[in-house]
Amino acid sequence: MTVELTVPAQAGRPGLLLRPWRAQDAEALAAAHRDAGMKRWLMTSLDGTEAARRWIDEQTAAWAEGMRFSFAVVGQDTALPVGHVAVKRKTAGAPSAEIGYWTSAQVRGRGIAPLAVDAVARWALGGDRGPSLTRLELLHDVDNTASCRVAVKCGFPLRGELAPHPPKFPVAGHIHALEPGGSA
Hints:
Number of helices: 5
Number of strands: 8
CATH class: Alpha Beta
CATH superfamily: Gcn5-related N-acetyltransferase (GNAT)
Distance between the termini: 23 Å
Number of domains: 1
């Protein structure tokens, strides 16, 4: 099933289209992953267009399995992705999931992440063609203040702090969580 979500243009921000990743997005995806700012916060890094193509194929398969719903964030004034939002279940059919996101360097700080995260959270928790989840968790390093701002803007209350678990998680983290009827 193909799901596309739209966010209308507002207050000087461009409209957004959130759609599944496509094979033709591989070059833009690889370019976004060359950014040092993204490499700092992401757990995975894509090294080149071929790796990006494999990643896109993995997202398509995970969507079909109902495990991961990955959206390319595309400005309505361009055909190229400028960000990503994903809803990731830990186990098949789980009623809760984690939401993750990034924006590319050229649009970072322009309010695109909160708009995209809000749209996907509404879809995931609302049941309208979505997975009808009962809880979405948003996790980030405590040092990632930009991600914390996105969580707060999207109505994800801070639920607590996560202890570090080196080497994968060398610093403490925040856990934000939203349930249906929340502010997403």
